[in-house]
Each structure stands twice: as structure tokens, then as C-alpha cells.
Amino acid sequence: MSNESKRTRHALNRRDFLKVSSGCMAGVAGVPMLSVSSPALGATPTSAYPVMEVARLSELKPGTTIPFAYPGPSSPALLMRLPEAARDGVGKDSTIVAFSILCTHKGCPVSYKAEQGMLICPCHWSTFDPAKGGDLIIGQASSSLPRIELRIEGDKVQAVGVEGLIYGHHTNIL
Ligand code: FES
Predict the structure, then answer these.
(1) Any idea of the CA torsion for 18, 22, 23, 25, to the nearest 10 degrees?
(2) Is 170 a catalytic site residue?
(3) 124 catalytic per annotation
(4) Which of 9, 68, 98, 104 has its CA 20 to 30 A from that of 53?
């Protein structure tokens, strides 16, 4: 056999192997595949969250903050009406937002500093921007604060879900 035909046979064998192995991977039955649109591990489907009234819209003046717990008593959160429109804010001026206050670094409770317009962790100074969906601005944490999803029903501001995994939880609803 010439060197040329050996090379061709070798190339075909490799091609056949790749075809068979990729077919096997695609054909494994019963193995759940994560798709791009799958929720992150540990996240809870929105439909599983309770609907909870957090505040009266008519009583929520700009600058107001209201502590609450959601979706359960071990998950402290803060509702805020910011002075300006916020990403994912609700209400007619999009100023109402809410976040888990458990810092995503090691779980210390963050607090809102109105003069800076930021949620700041007292433990290692991670700083999160409530006007930008709780994005991490600086600090030891590696991810944004989980955002409490809100909706307005008449005069009620309701919590209806959580985007992101609350610190210390393997799933948001225990
Ligand atoms: S616990 Fe918040 S920065 Fe470390």
C-alpha cells in the first residue's frame, strides 16, 4: 500500500470516528441537556414564587425604602423608590425597584446610601447600583444583587419573583 493510500485510509477512519462519536452524543436518550435558555442552576421558575404585597403605590414617595423578606423569611430584601428611572423599574416613572440585601460575596446585609445612590456592603465594601439592576460596581463580590421582580396591581406593589440566586441558598425557595 502506498503512503498516499495509507494517509487517505487514516483520514477516513478519523472522519468515521468523529461521525459515530458525535452521533452517539446526540443520541443518548434520557440525558437532560441544558440549553442556552435554561434557567441557571439553583434558580427557581417564576411560576413557583408567591405573590406578595410589599407597599402601597400611593404611599411610596421618592427616596422611600421599605425592608421586607421575599420569597421567604430568611431572604431579607429592600424596596426602593429611586429619584430617577431605573433599569427594570416599575411604576409610571420606572423608579421602583427591589433587591435581596444579602451581599453576593459573603452574605453581609447591604444598605442603601442615598447620598451615593448605591447599595453598599459594610463588610468588604462591595457596591451595587440599584438604578442599573443591582449591578456590581466595585468590590469583592463577583455578581450583581438578585433583583426582586415587581409588578403594580392597582395601588399595590407586589413581589412576584427573583432574578438571580440569593446568597447562601441553593434554590431561592427553600
Ligand atoms: S460580604 Fe459583602 S463585600 Fe464581602
Answers:
(1) 140
(2) no
(3) yes
(4) 104
> pLDDT tens digits, residue range 22-31?
433 333 333 3
Question: What architecture is domain 46-163?
Answer: 3-layer Sandwich (2.102)
Closest atom, ligand 1, to C-alpha of 126: 3
User: Which residue ranges make up each domain of the chain?
Assistant: 1-33, 46-163
Residues forming beta bridges with residue 5, ordered by sequence position: none
Residues lining ligand 1, judged by CB closer than 6 Å?
Answer: 103, 105-106, 108, 121, 123-124, 126, 139-141
Mean pLDDT of each 10-residue bin along the chain, 174 residues long: 46 43 38 38 69 97 96 97 97 97 98 97 98 98 97 98 96 88
How far is ligand 1, taken at its centre, from the CA of residue 163, in Å? 20
Letter for the amino acid at 155?
D
